[in-house]
Amino acid sequence: MTVPNLSKISVAQLSGSVSPRAGFTGRDAKRIATAGYHAVMIIVVAAYIFPVVWAASMSLRTDANMFSADQLIPHPITLAHYEKLFTVLPDFWHYFGNTAVIAILGTAGTLFSSSLAGYALARFRFPGRQALLVTLLLTLMVPVQATLIPQYVIFRNLGWIDSPLPIIVPMLFGTAFASFFFRQFFLTLPRELEDAASIDGAGPWRSFFSVIVPLSGPAYLAMGLLTFVQLWNSFYVNSIYLSSQQNWVLTQALQSMVGRYDSQYGEIMAGVTLVSLPIVIGYLIFQRWIVRGIAMSGLAN
Amino acid sequence: MLFVLPQVVGLLLFIAVPLVASFGYSFTKWDLIAPDPTFIGLGNWAHLLQDGRIPAVLWNTAKFILLGTSSFLFFSLLAALLTYVPRRFVGVYRALLFLPYVISQIAVGIVWRWMFNSQTGPITLGVELFGIHSPAWLLDPATAILSIAAVTTWQAVGYGMTLYVAALQGVPTTLLEAATIDGANWFQRFRNVTLPMISPTVFFLMVTSLIGALQLFDPVVAMTTSNAGVAGAGGPSNSTRSIVLYMYNQMFNYSEQLSGLGYAAAIAWMLAILTFVISALQFFVSRRWVYYDGADRGRQRNPRKRRTRP
User: Fold this and answer.
1) Cβ-defined contact of B82 to A48 (cutoff 8 Å)
2) Taking CA atoms, what residue in B is nearest to A274?
């Protein structure tokens, strides 16, 4: 009920237009209006994603064709810039691995800890519950920078600087955003689920892991995707902790090309494309889960 | 309570304690080379008030916030109004409008650096197609922060649209029909029915995007770095140097009398105070314009109060 199920609504109502003006116009006029709408939308959407498409296209062009307007689909197609990219950034796949490790471990840890916290906040009465909830919400207002320097000093004393640990370890404890998200989700599940389990003798842990978790796939998937994308794309925190080149993540490698290789658009755009491709493909596959997650997270207000 | 243990420990270790410690550091000077920070009293805070670069940094961030947040709120709503009515292909349009949001700000910034390029950039060429002399966008101090705000808006519109679509689909059709029967035209219906009903979403997007905008960093680095690396970002003529970028530069720069971790901590705390004051101000003003009695959404917003307690 809390989740506005966008995709289901659109599937169910695809056939009938619900435009408030539908009754006032004739059938033909309505058809023309629909065609006009789609024409406008196609132009708007095409213009909107033009930079993304054009960047990918540039990475496949020959240098001579780089700035030609008729090269949307490059002819001839060349992979030369990708080959060159791997000489500019010989450790590209290494950075890819570093990024994947941070994103996967950070996401797994966040899902585990935050869903536990979210479940307790949704279901149990315990001293300090209200305070914890308020603190979580207030935390969303604290800028990362305000906690950065002491964290940096702690991690430095632990000898963790220039390793992914300062980025992964805090995520293992869960994030305020994810905990609140899970709380909102678990509130929508009927209590009878656990009541039935507890009649069968299951304690809170058992009913959480064997009743609630299996039913919460969509929430885990949505939050997991959001967290993964955020970690994959992050730059600021990584640039603070990961100083030596072999420990870089992809965004740092990409950023390092700016300035040095400014005129080599082919290589730059090849880098941009390779770094974004896994996320874009993942997005196209899991699009409705990500969008649902975003819509759900909006209910935090 | 074992369930909340990790999250509570995390909050203490990585938020609460560092937040307080950060305040402590703001009264010290430390370059990480000396074994310990030196207590210097209010030195950093006094420096914050006298530092000639701070007003410019604040003004740059303020311009970014005003341009970025207002255009984000407006264009996301526009995109949602164009796509909230369920019909054929509307899902495809929404999916494509959302796409830039999942790409990293660094990658997006690099692509837009080229879009704004003064010789070959499509934006420049597009403007000159109309016979107007194009500004130099990222290279002109007058337009650089505006260009960055345009890019962050472009990237975030899909996110705002998604929340607006959910809100618009929750506006009760009975209210809109009643307004139509009363003779309200589409603008009156939008102004007097739709807008109040979606005002909680407008408010939520406004608060969260302002908090995010105050922490502007990645787009500036991606779009204004010259060959000097992150330290060289913030140009031209420091017109895009944001609060967080300035803090970053001060944190790892020990060449000035007061720069270093202590001064960076003071800047960070200034940012936290600004965030809190601006958010509190918005909550305060929101009572005048945010309408919380929307039938369904109101119930969700405060589920605690209406749930039977165990």
Assistant:
1) no
2) B107
**Inter-chain residue contact B6 with A279, CB threshold 8 Å:** no
Q: What pLDDT is attached to residue A24?
A: 52
> Residue for token digits 């842990």?
A205
Q: From the list A149, A236, A250, which residue is nearest B22 (CB)?
A: A149
pLDDT of A23 higher than 90:
no
| Global confidence as pTM | 0.88
Q: What is the full DSSP assignment across B131-192?
A: TPPPP-GGGSTTTHHHHHHHHHHHHHHHHHHHHHHHHHHTS-HHHHHHHHHTT--HHHHIII
ipTM of the complex: 0.87
Distance separating alpha carbons of residues A251 and B222, to the nearest angstrom: 10
Walk me through the domains of chain B, giving residue ranges and CATH numbers. Answer: 54-294 (1.10.3720.10)
| Cβ separation A132–B19 shorter than 8 A | no
Per-residue pLDDT band at B301 (split at 50, 70, 90): very low
Domains of chain A: 19-85 (no CATH), 90-300 (1.10.3720.10)
Residue B286 has φ and ψ, to the nearest 5°, of -60, -25
CA distances from A208 to A94, A117, A145, A191, B2 (A): 38, 12, 35, 12, 13
